[in-house]
Amino acid sequence: MKNSFWGLIWQSFLEIYAVPATFLGIIISVIAWILSSKTQVSLPLVITIAVFTLIVIITLFHAAYKAFRYTNKLESELEEVRETNENLVNEVNKWRIPKILRVQKNQNTDFILCLLESSDLFAIKITVSFYYTDEDGFERFIGLGFIENIQTDGKIQAVMNHPFSTYQNILDKLANNDHTVLERTIIRPGTPNDFNQP
What we know:
By secondary structure, the chain is of the alpha+beta class. 48% of the residues lie in helices and 22% in strands. The chain has two domains: 5-94; 100-189.
């Protein structure tokens, strides 16, 4: 469909075969003018006006119908794009590193329990690594742990059972649910191959 109002009108005009109808109307008007020249109102004029009026009305109705169909098609395609986009976002979210939602510290041990968003990256009992990104943008390896549980709502419980005392200040803030430290701390599946505890 043409991308303008007049383009739509012209396309509709052509699709209803208005060009041959116009020529036919002109021919009929000429014939009527030749055969009848004694009437009060000129018959050829009446026929010409009637033909052109009919063509305009049909063209406008056809254009409105095409615009309606085109709008419905666009709405349908837009809905499909939205569904596809939503599916892609869900698929990407499955494989991204989940954020830490809340933290609890075990009073009897140095273990730190973290509640994470749901993610397909983790399974129960796998080992995980804890990293903190400092103010200069460097990631610091602050502890090791494992996935203790995946809740029925999909959220993940990760336990840091080997916190590195070198980063005790960060660990204390993490255990106290410091918002900045929560935002800067991530948990990845697995441990580094060349891991050495600091």
